Amino acid sequence: MKWEKRKGSEPEKNTQPLSDPVQSGRIARKKLVCIGTSTGGPRALQTVLSSLPGNLEAPVLVVQHMPSGFTKSLASRLNAISNIRVKEAEDGEMLKPGAVYIAPGDFHMGVEARGAHLFIRLEQSAPVNGHRPAVDKTFESVSMLKNYETLAVIMTGMGSDGTKGLIALKNRGHVRAIVEAEESCIVYGMPRSAIAAKVVDEVLPLEKIAEAIMKFISD
């Protein structure tokens, strides 16, 4: 695969946590983006992440089915072509806006709320449907958060990983679900499974997903 370097200077890293203002007597919910993908995912992630701005006002969690030792180099390559910071997730690190966290191979990735911040939790419980990391595990972890609005994105991939996690997110509310359209998928299994479960709000071609992420965060 050819990775093309984006033009422009090195982006400034936004290290400030998201604010939690009160509007009209209610807490304004923070935003979180979660992306799950498998077969064909590296190329799809290249398209989406390289189109996001470096000052994106939300963190992004990514689960790409990959074995141990490959996700760190994937994160490095994606970081080199993107304005937003892309890194392999580390256990215990605090999520920050303007950053993408890729689940390490052979680890499930979850999140834990402590005070006003979210922290990465990595663990090695049994694979889910043969996958570790599994999209379902990340989505299910995010479904337990309070005062967050989540955009869950399922892109190209074989199987049904992510569908049970989407159901959990929908049962808790405050989630918008997008899947990649069949015409741009390398393998349509994961998006098809989510659509069949009737938990999808929008179906978009790959080139429209970054725009949808930015709209979700700005709304």
Q: Work out the helicity level.
A: 25-40%
Order of helices and strands: EEEHEHEEEEHEHEHEH
Total number of distinct structural domains: 1
Strands side by side in the biggest sheet: 5-6-4-3-9-10-11
CATH topology (level 3) name: Rossmann fold
What is the arithmetic mean of pLDDT?
91
Helical element count?
6
Shape: globular
Going by helix content, strand content and strand pairing, the class is alpha/beta
Q: Class, according to the CATH hierarchy?
A: Alpha Beta
Query: How much β-strand is present in the residues?
Result: 25-35%
Question: How many extended strands?
Answer: 11
Separation of the first and last Cα atoms: 35 Å
Low-confidence stretches: 1-26
Would you give an account of this structure?
There is one protein chain. 26% of the residues lie in helices and 25% in strands. With 219 residues, the chain is α/β, with parallel strands linked by helices. The protein has one domain: Methylesterase CheB, C-terminal domain (Rossmann fold). It has a 7-stranded parallel sheet, with helices on both faces. A two-stranded antiparallel sheet has the order 1-2. A two-stranded antiparallel ribbon has the order 7-8. α3 (135-142) runs parallel beside α4 (163-172). It catalyses: [protein]-L-glutamate 5-O-methyl ester + H2O = L-glutamyl-[protein] + methanol + H(+).
